[in-house]
Structure formats: structure tokens, C-alpha cells
Amino acid sequence: MVNYIWLGMIVIGVLVAAINGHVEVVTKAALEGAQVAVQTAIDLIAIITLWLGIMKLAEAAGLVRALARMVQPITRFLFPSVPKDHPAMGAIVMNLSANILGLGNASTPMGLIAMQELQKLNRGDPKEATDAMCTFLALNTSCITLIPTTIIGIRLIYGSADPTEIVGTTIFATAAGMTVAVCMDRLLRYLYYRGR
Amino acid sequence: MFSVVSDLSRWAVPVVLLLVPLIAMFRGVNVFEKFVEGAEDGFSTAVKTIPFLVAMLVAISIFRASGALDMVVGIFAPVLNMVGFPAEVLPHAIMRPLSGGASLGIATDIIKTHGPDSFIGRLVSTMQGSSDTTFYVLTLYFGSVGISRYRYSIISGLSADFTTLIASVYVAHKLFGPV
Asked: Could you tell me which PANTHER family the record lists for this protein (chain B) (predicted)?
């Protein structure tokens, strides 16, 4: 799937540029894209290093485990393949909490830690996503954000009478998306194993 | 309600940065040493994502700069207009799962042009706030552990994004509409 989307974007992009008679924009766009990618990764180094350190402390102090225990009924249902007291559970819970609070820069490192822990549980092909990873990412990408700070800020800048009036509609839309994400994850997993 | 949640957001990180080392200390953890031990992998984790991010962002960048995005919008806009979906927000809907920066740029532009309190402004705000950059997140998270076969996660992610889009249009019509 990702192969087709990726190739599709490049092929269509180059063709359209050629038809429009400005094929040279492709060169510039490709280099710019690569630059943004590397810059993003570089920017991530600092924040990931910081949160990896804090996470290690939280783990050593038994905090991650305590947090994971608190929400166990939900996580048992969502992640049946992850053992009860595994650090992956703690990292997943931390990531989702940070997401809900709208702390984007804290949630990403937590998410990467969760992925590393989930990869340790991967008994199959190390290049292939596991069930738990798919569920985690479905939740992560559709997760409710209580306060979408960036967009509220932009509404404020452009003189909105009530910048926060979209909080309610945002929560409604995101809740619908999250429900579908969880259901689709279950359905597609079932179809995946049946098709094999 | 809003002030409580926004206070919570403001305090969350400082409180975590204070409490975690403090509690660890009380539990007899060698705090400095443990922190450094954990932080060790920061660099390699971030660097490992580079090839995956480059691959994805190059493709997105080409698709956008070539005019292919505008072409797709031109094809679908008339149909969508008929079902109450304003064509102005279509570029945003397409870019949202691909690139956080680009979709935020489009949203900002729409809010600037139409005003934040217009129907379109409110709709695009809801769309921006309620969804995530699915492709970027998948690329980054899977990339950091070297996974290149995503199985069905693109489909579940995109169907969630699509639902969020429909729900945004629906709830905006209910609360802020009709246009």
C-alpha cells in the first residue's frame, strides 16, 4: 500500500510538472523535501534525548508501571499481545496522555520509546509491523486532543471573536475518527489473518 | 472548562520534570547516572528516522510543487460543492495526513482569507484541530525501529482521517451552518 502511494505521488508529480512545462520544479522540490526531512530529524535529537532520560528515571522509580496499572482494563482490551507489566504499556499510556493534553513535543519521544519496546516484543519479521504496533498507531494518529493550541493561536491572530469555539467541534470529530480507527484496526487484523 | 485544561497543558511538563527525578531519588535511584543511561540512545533514534522521512517528504514535496495537488482539487471540487463540502478546504483535506506544516499553512491561509469566524474558517479550524499527520507519524514511528512493511495501518489510519473529515463537515454544518 505504502509502495503505491509513494510511487504514485512521485510519478504523478513528475508527469504533471512535465505537462505543465516546468519539469525543473521537481528537482527543487525533491531537494527541499529532503532538507525538511533531515532538519526535522535533527530537531528531534534534543527533545528525544531529554525525554528518553526522563523516561528512564520514571521507569527506574516504578512510575511507568504504576501508571500502566491504572489504565490496565482498557489497555488489556486494546493490546492483548503485550504482557501485563511490560514497559511498552507504560510508554504507550504516556504517549497517549501527552497527545490528549496537546503536548506534541513530549508525545513524540514517548511514542518512539513505545515503538522500541513493541519492537522488542516482535517475534516475527523485524521489518514488519506487529498487531500491537498497528493498534498503537491507529490510536495515536486519531487521538483526541483536548486543546488544539496551534489552531486556536492562529484564530486569535486573525481576530476571531471566540478562538476556542472550535474545541467542541474538534472533540466531536476526533472522537468519531478514533472510534473508526479502533474498529478498523480490529476488522483489518481479522481480515489479514484470515487472508493468509 | 477550557481554562482548566489549558492550565493542565501548561503545567504538565514542568510538573513531570520536577516530580519524576524527585520520586526516583526517594526510591534510591542514582538519578544523574540513570538519566544519562536513558538519554544515550537519543541521537541514534533520531538519526535512524532520516531515510524514512526523506523518502516520504521528497514524494510529498514533488506532488505538491508540480501542481498535481491543484489538479486533483480542480477535478473533485465541483462534485464536493454539491454535497455541502466547500471546495476551498479540499487542499487542506488532502494535505492534512501528509504534512503538518503544509496543512497548517493552508489552514492559516484560509482563515486569513475568509476570516476565522466564517463558516469555512470554523470548518478548517475543526479539521486542523481534530486530525493528525497520519503519514508523517507512521513514517517516523515505524522508521525509528526499522520497519518498512506497515501491513494494514495505512488503511486504518486513513479511514479514521476520512471519518474525521466527514464528522468535521457534519458538526460544522450543525453548529455553525448553513453556509
From this structure: INNER MEMBRANE PROTEIN YJIG
Please give the residue of chain A at the shortest CA–CA distance from B160: A177
- The Cα A98–Cα A110 span in angstroms is 8
Q: How many residues does chain B have?
A: 179
Collapsing DSSP to helix, strand or coil, A122 comes out as coil
- Give this complex's ipTM: 0.85
A94 touches chain B (CB under 8 A): no
Cβ–Cβ contacts within 10 Å for residue B162, how many?
Answer: 15
* Cα B14 from Cα A67, distance rounded (Å): 18
Domain boundaries, chain A: 1-46, 62-195
How many CA atoms lie less than 13 Å away from A101 in the CB half-sphere? 20
CA A66/CA A80 separation, integer angstroms: 19
* B84 near A CB under 8 A: no
Q: What is the largest CA-CA distance in chain A?
A: 62
DSSP single-letter state for residue A128:
B
pLDDT in tens, B86-139: 888 998 998 899 888 788 888 988 998 899 999 999 999 999 988 888 988 999
